[in-house]
Amino acid sequence: TRGFVLGATAGRTTLNGEGLQHEDGHSVLLAATNPAAVHYDAAYAFELGHIVRDGLRRMYGDEPENVFYYLTIYNEPYVQPAEPENLDVDGLLRGVYRFSAADVGDGDDRPRAQILASGVALNWALEAQRRLAEEWQVAADVWSATSWNELRREAVATDEWNLMNPDGPPRVPYVTQRLGDAPGPVVAVSDYTREVQDQIAPFVRQEFMSLGTDGFGLSDTRAALRRHFKVDAQSIAIGVLTLLARRGDVPWETLKQAHETYRIDDVTATTAEEAGGET
């Protein structure tokens, strides 16, 4: 059977008030166990347009594949940006592309970092990027990770090819190539459990931290849930500053000041706007 399965109740924090049965933190991992299931966790409509068109080609084109698509499309209204000029469609379809580069000029010696995010989490990552630049003088690039599963599958297939072809030049996984020259540590975040992002950790050469919705869900506002799980913009910023402090790129005092400012241990110290969605 070919076609599209649409996960409209996706994520652990988007259907926050309708009961815990709708809070999904693991379906991405279930999809990863089925070689025929192609999963994408898109953030924006223009991404979905390219994914659906390519899915129709793969499933019903001249050389149809025996696959089906699982698209997690969420339940949260937010502004849909126009498709960027010179969009990296190949990267989008393969699983990751740079959505928002840091504003870095010649001679800019600010600490650098990379934030990978999927689905609704891309909005939190963009807010974290703004806060890091304006409040902590850190330049972070934001990447849209449209498919953690496909990135891992390609990386595992690359590993297998290298294992079976010892005399040939070793191949490098796509995600490793894309992040190869990206400066600074990597923070990966989604509205799913950390195991989803951890799938690519072995193939990322930089220091790596994942942030996700591990543990039991609960009913509250989106803002409170995202603070509870430590996936909101301020928590992402703290994650970046933590890795930079470990590297010696920012003082530990800066990290301590960020904790005092954001109070990420307090679910009431945030607002819907800061969390990327209304309550």
Write the layout of secondary structure elements.
Layout: E1 4-7, H1 27-32, E2 37-40, H2 45-60, E3 68-72, H3 89-94, E4 97-100, E5 112-117, H4 121-136, E6 139-144, H5 148-164, H6 174-179, E7 186-189, H7 194-198, E8 208-211, H8 222-229, H9 233-247, H10 252-262, H11 272-275
Parallel strand pairs: 1-3, 2-3, 5-6, 5-7, 7-8
Antiparallel strand pairs: 4-6
Helix pairs in contact: 4-9, 9-10
Keywords:
single chain, alpha/beta, 279 residues, 5-stranded mixed β-sheet
Q: Please tally the β strands and state the result.
A: 8
Contiguous helical run count: 11
Strand content: 5-15%
**Which spans have pLDDT < 50 for at least 5 consecutive residues?**
none
Strand order within the widest sheet? 4-6-5-7-8
Helix content: 25-40%
Biggest sheet details: 5 strands, mixed
Shape type: globular
Mean pLDDT: 93
The arrangement of helices and strands along the chain is EHEHEHEEHEHHEHEHHHH
C-alpha Rg (nearest Å): 19 Å
**How far do the termini sit from each other?**
38 Å
Structural class designation: alpha/beta
Please give a structural write-up.
The protein has 279 residues and is α/β, with parallel strands linked by helices. Helices cover 39% and strands 13% of the residues. It is built from eleven helices and eight strands. The protein has a five-stranded mixed β-sheet with strand order 4-6-5-7-8. Strands 1-3-2 form a three-stranded parallel β-sheet. The longest helix has 17 residues. It starts with a strand and ends with a helix.
